[in-house]
Design a protein that fits this description.
Blueprint (H helix, E strand, L loop, with lengths): L6 H7 L4 H4 L2 H4 L10 E3 L4 H10 L4 E4 L5 E5 L1 H9 L3
Parallel strand pairs: 1-2
Antiparallel strand pairs: 2-3
């Protein structure tokens, strides 16, 4: 959805609601600060939005073993949602 390989795929996925299908793993970056809450790599952006609106601090993204693998912040989600197709 974020980087369609062909024009056909771009057109096919154009109307897919990104927040419902993309996950924390899709927008996370390397940790820079202490996050205020943890989320799973497979949590959807739709799940993360209320958390990010409640507090400006980044969220720690953890794997299935509870190990931190990255962070998600408002800027990353905002950038992803605003990307032109």
């Amino acid at each position: 959805i974020r980087h369609p390989a062909t024009d056909y795929v771009r057109e096919f996925t154009m109307d897919v609601p990104k927040a419902k299908v993309l996950t924390a793993r899709d927008v996370m970056h390397d940790p820079t600060d202490d996050g205020w809450q943890t989320v799973r790599t497979d949590d959807t952006i739709e799940h993360l939005l209320p958390l990010l609106l409640d507090d400006p601090r980044p969220l720690d993204v953890v794997d299935e073993h509870g190990g931190q693998v990255g962070q998600v912040d408002r800027a990353a989600v905002s950038s992803m949602l605003g990307e032109e197709e």
